[in-house]
Amino acid sequence: TAGITHDCTYYYLESELSPLGFEFVSDSAGNKRSFFTKGDYIFILKKKDAPTNPTGISRNIREQNVSKHVITISYETDPLGIEVARIFVQYLRGNAVEYSFTITPEDGWGISHTPSTILPTEGEHVKPKLKIKKNDAI
Asked: DSSP per residue over 61-89, as a string?
């Protein structure tokens, strides 16, 4: 589920931010990468506390020794790993956090909450249906 949650988060960000001028990148094989850019900024998307191996590249990113400013967007999932519970936006320089911002579901994520279907009136019973088109499957 971790991979699916990550992919869904990335695709949501891509659909919401692309019209605002953010650029999303694929590699030569067409795989989506976990970063996007706008102007002089690179935004890296990752799961909070995901294990990583320290490399020269990760050290350069952490020290801001790259050609653009790097902002890390980490997300934390619920205990089942299905939904995003919190988002952390950070600008790191070495071990110092120069800027940090947290977004929670209570903040509303900035998403409108309109029901997608009309609920049946009282006394009316509607049998639920599950339909998945082949094109909608991930």
From this structure: HHTT-SSSEEEEEEEEE-TTS-SEEEEEE
